[in-house]
Structure formats: C-alpha cells, structure tokens
Known about the structure:
single chain, mainly beta, four-stranded antiparallel sheet, 11 strands
Amino acid sequence: QVQLVESGGGLVQPGGPLRLSCAASGSISSFNNMGWYRQAPEEQREFVAQITRIGSIDYAVDYADSVKGRFTISRDNAKNTLYLQINSLEPEDTAVYYCNAYYGGHWYWGHGTQVTVSS
Length: 119
C-alpha cells in the first residue's frame, strides 16, 4: 500500500511562487510515473504535470499547456518526495493539488493540498 501526502499549499498573492511537496510512505525509486493534478471549485480534476522514467536514471517531464513555463515538476528519490515548483501564480491556479503515482499496476493518490491565489 502506497501513501502519498501533499504539503506546501496556502494563500499566495498573484505573481508569487510556491513549492508543493508530495511525500511517499516508502521508496519511490520504483515508481515509473508520478504526477500532479488539480481540481478547481466546480471543475473536473485536470492534469498538471508528470515525470516518467525513461531510463535507469533518466526521466521525461510533461506539462499541461496552461502551466508550461511556470511549473516545474521534479523528484528526489533519496527523500521519497515529488515536488511541484510553481512560479508566477495566477488566480486561475487556485485549486486543490493532488499528486499521484503508478506502482504495481495501481494508481495511488494523495488527499490534496489547497492552493489559493488571491490579493
């Protein structure tokens, strides 16, 4: 059983930065695919970013068009943590952010962290 716990959300002014973390209960070294999704009020959950293993130490990243150039996904296998660096926050980024991981034929999700962008 994999447990994922997001943190780092909060109230941020437009234009500000934020870094979200997703801590796993065990080693993430075997997680070939990890990612971030978000869900705004009264909206469906949408893809934000993913990081996929393409070699023994190489990863490929992919982003939703709406966040390209502002969001950066990364992972630290030694700390069993996935990150999402967000820059130039916009009010439209307000949402609950979830991380997920694919392992052993299953997708696992965290419970989310709220990000609110407002002046």
